[in-house]
Design goal:
about 775 residues, alpha+beta, Afi1_N, Actin_polarity_regulatory, UDENN domain-containing protein
Amino acid sequence: MATALPYRPSNDSLSASNRQTTGLPRLSPAPSFIGRSPSSSHGSYRRISTENTGSSFKPRRCKAQYPLDSPERHVEYILVASFHIDRGPIMEHQYPAAISGDESMLAELMLPDQTHVRSQDWTMFFLHKDTSGDDDTDSVGGKKKKRKSKYRGNQEGADIQDENSDEASDDPDSSDDEGGEGPPLMYVLNLVNTKQDNTVRRGAVVKAMAICTRHSFLHIYKPLLLLALEDYFKSPYPETLASLYDAVNAMDLSLMPKMSILERHILQSSNTKDMFLEKFEQMIRQREEEESQDGECPPSPKKMSRYVLPRDTHEYESKVVYNDIPIPVKIPTVIWPETVGDFSLIKLVQTFAVPHATSPQAFPAHPHLTTSGPFTHPIIVLVNAILTQKRVVFLGHNRPSGEVAEAVLAACALASGGILRGFTRHAFPYTDLTKIDDLLKVPGFIAGVTNPTFANHPEWWDILCDLPTGRIKISTHVEPAPVTEGLLFFQQQNALLPNNTSNTTHDPTGDTLFMEDILRSISQRHGENAVRAKWRGYITKFVRVAAAFEEAVYGASNLYIIGPGEELSPDSPTGHQSDAADPSSLRGHGYVWTDEMAKQRELSASVSRIEGWRNTRSYYSYIQDIAAMYFPARPIQRPDITHHHDRLRALKLSHSESASIYLALAHAVKDYAGICQLLCVAPENQAGLFYISMGLFHPDQVVREATVDLLDRIASHPAGRHFWTQVGRFAKLGYIRVKRERDAATQSPISGAASPTIPTSPGASFGGEPQSLVGVAMGGNISRRS
């Protein structure tokens, strides 16, 4: 099943200085065959905002995710396969060069089972470069070794380490192109068409065309494949493939800004369509400055800019000109690990939730899977299976292979939550019975099949997800959960508790309430982004609970890096300052429970699932990620902002305890990155700045004024200004009151009659006019959009 990726030397005419990292895994060193025109994206945007966006500080130069002069190509190869009546699936063309010597295997993947019964079908698979054969140095014979690939899963985690290495260093070329799991894979989007033709022996012609790319947003190429395959039926020559290849590689994405991990987190968790619009404006200004220096566009104060701002900063709009037809495409600005293609978590949840709600069926007990008893929700069983690295098969008998592939990719994203990785690398969006021997060699695979034979072989899988019936089955051959140190530890703890956990609550893990919340969001049409955000929060909580579990059982956790001045102990004091002169030296870390009993109940209920996860690929990948992301994702190491914000949200604190938190936040959160970190902790869909703004009503005047200063800094932040507009009027009136009290105390009797204003109102530090107190209270905010 191995396929070979040919090595093509880079063009000597390209300067090494042009090979910049884009924050995504690096591609082949071969240069792009077609230069990308910066004009190809001009018509994809609205009219540019004319508002002055100058800020009180000089922003760093904004980098592009895909620079205009980058040698990296959007599409590496284009393949065409067809079904021959005598020879079976055959490869007709590979452009611009042969991707593999094993053409029969690729042709079989491009022509899935039962293709002839459908006029059209989509599928997806991945090509995995074999690191054992990846050596670009000269061999003894003086020849380069060929790069090899296998039909395997995908690796998106290198993206994490590349991006964060770049964020932690000013050197754009300091990132490595291979993460902890090896080099990234090539994603293949495949379209199969069947055309009836009575002149041929079988009465139909079956052809498939595939695009091979390193980008995980390969679904944007679907309209192009539809047009190109139709053209190929009319003109089955390499020139047809060349026109498609040239068109897609001429797509211009050079005005898409590269964002830090904190900025990406804020953008994806927000529904505000102009979030970080300033970055797009800065990219346009930089482009115009470069053009004016080159003499392309002489500066003119009356001339309107030919570049305009996006309607929604969550998507970058561009176009591909194919055969003189401009085809609009939308590329997601933020792409998390394990997110490949265009799938729907809502569709996946509904597929298995509806049969379970109408006619629930009990699962056989398994500690790793049925964490809420025999009637555990099937989606939770699926997530537990992926987290604990079980073999998962999605069966779609008489269903299109594209539907099965979608379910596999959605399941990977479900268990990842954008936090964990290592799932899609071992995923097979579509496979068939002929590759079962190779499939069974992969531990913890996630595969999509259409052959019903898989249902009759429970020894091949641990979990079978039947898409037509919406049922999930646990195999009788699943490996039993071993007895671990953590399990014995909590069995002893439960014996000492005054009440048994089963008598205290029927949902100690909170999974039942969580699934009810997910289904409620779906029924109320909150949308795909809202559901994904909830799953991200669920996986984040799981990791934090696992860290607390390790601290309780083993005394320390691999999943959390202790900040400066923090004691390495599960019983370390919370809410005390390690340095009396520094309010930001507040101790405390980890997940927050309402009381010790609630903590013991949840840890006891989750012990098997956590112990099962601790021996998986995703666990060790996460340990690598938190080390690589420590400085980019935590510019403020002390105090633990997440922990203390959770204390404000979940606990009933005394005035002195809450005062220490507000003062610590006000002293720690000063700069741009620190505010981004705080906004990640308080997303808009989880009350936003509500708990921070409650410091405006603290009985201590020092705390109130410190909260005002903190909110001032947040309101002048490019993203924080949107959070400030979501604050309620009651909190804004409290903000006005504190400002007036402080102004009255500092004003002289002569200047006391002056009408106070708020110089740090939202947008003021970015060129907007200062707003009056009434304007702030009423939430009046001039939009930046034109």
